[in-house]
Amino acid sequence: MRGKTMPVKSNGLLSRRQLLKTGAAAAGIGAAGILTGQGTRYAIAGNLTKIKLEWTEVAACHSPVGFALDKGIFTKHGLDVELFYQGASGQTLIQALATRKAEAGPGLLYDWLKPIEQGFDVKLFAGSHGGCQSILTKQDSGIKTLTDLKGKTIGTFDVMSPSRVAFSVALKKAGIDPEQDVTWKVFPFDLVAEAVLRGEADALAHMDPWAYGWEKEHKFHRVADTQTGTFKDRVCCVLGVNGDYYEANKEALKRVAAANLEVHQYAAQHPDEVAQWYFDTLRPGMSVETLTEVLASFTYHDHWFGDKLRDEVKRGYEDLKLTGVVDASTDPEEIASRITIDIFA
């Protein structure tokens, strides 16, 4: 069960057509149910607000976004959504919004922060889940904890992959210099596990579903992930929006946040359904059962809005200051307050 890069639609787009009680409490909006068909409809058919959302089609954690489009959840919230595939790199996430190929969408928290610090006009308005990346190694490697990685080589899929950025923070907090005490080595996206098996790297840092699939297939040891240790109870992916689009479409963005909240709460309760859609639509090269396990492992039941999201953004800036990615002069409190929208206020 080797991970494979999923096919991309040639035009980069997929198109088509309550809040649950837990989500409604967080959002302060009336609840309804996906399966009952009850829900607040914000616009009549033919009068939907158009918006282009970017997403990382290859990332398991983003599958609820595609599921929501296919099942009509965005339409129910008065939105005519197109999904733009932006790839697995945080840089292409930024480029998609900067070039107006998309107006909003989810991305890893750390991927947003440096460009925003440098003046990129994006506001962050919702956190969707925690967990989707791991560091793995062979069972007989002798590497059991982050501190055991000192002097070792870690394989990843990009020189500044999201996994490298995240685990550089974790290594630094564990007393390991992520630039001097470990060696990062880049391999093709779907061959990182092979590098560990061949002895070309001592460990790998990668995203799900590949990391989860390789851990299961090769019986790898999970050294760390983005749900435990320094990342326990933390947000992983956050939705951002171009500042000018938000100023002109505040009500639409509230509906995006409401739809996002609804589908992620649904995914927490029905990971098998989202996994089946993921399998049928994107063909990720692993079984529905494994995909269900992957999706069930994410903290889709947690939601970050308002003060809770602002605190996560502040902590994110503190983390990246620690690793030198963010300037030492940056004030995490000030910038977090400035760029975070309390979307349901």
From TrEMBL:
Matching PROSITE patterns: TAT
Stated name of the protein: ABC transporter substrate-binding protein
Protein family membership: Belongs to the bacterial solute-binding protein SsuA/TauA family.
Residue ranges of every copy of the Solute-binding protein family 3/N-terminal domain listed in the record: 57-264
InterPro entries reported in the protein's UniProt record: Solute-binding_3/MltF_N, SsuA/THI5, TAT_signal
